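hi! just following up on the protien thing from before. the input was this:
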Amino acid sequence: MKPDDPSARVSHETIYAAIYAQPRGGLKAAMVEALRQAKPARGRKRATLAGSSMVPDSLRIINRPEEIEARLVPGHWEGDLIKGAFNRSSVGTLVERKTRFVVLCKMNGNGAEAVLDSFTRQMKRLPAALRKSMTYDRGSEMACHPELARRLKIDIWFCDPHAPWQRGSNENTNGLLRQFMPKGTDLDDASQTWLNDVAALLNNRPRKTLGWRTPAEAMADEITAFKSTVALEVGN
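and the predicted 3d structure came back as:
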């Protein structure tokens, strides 16, 4: 209403607080339904790896190299699952931190073995130079993380408990993906071909944070730059 008056602006947190503070009733239901994810409450509960012993202190995000935090080089990913109806199905989501490039993974189940198999299968399609690390939360589906790291030859870092902002790119992407995979959907019906098509839609969407390039363009630029560097090294 007043785009040129900074004093008339409020943050998104203020808007959410106003919506969720409403008493129960038709107005609150209509307001929540208008939200992108239509959540009845903010946040989510998540099963965590059994005890801190499952996450060695050396793999905590606080020990993650600065080059990952600063998004200086490509090849560092954030991972998560989108759950389907009654948490009985899921889709793996991977977002590259520098380019925001999205990879979606068909899952055959929700457990640690399913994550191991699907993430390995899809990430092995990427050039080895683009498989440097993955940052994940402490969900129990990552119980096979040592084997995943071995298969892909990557480092795996774990966020602090209840800190989804430490994988902010992935969280934002999951919100966008809910337009294609609404809550209550049986994600067992989602084929890898369809998931690739959905990922392509997001990867060809211009992003302000990329200077209005698309993630696909940003990733292509990184691959070209890498090939040029390798060619120079070989030539020398």
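The helical segments are 12-20, 26-34, 66-69, 112-123, 145-152, 168-177, 192-203, 215-235.
The first strand starts at residue 76 and ends at 83.
cheers
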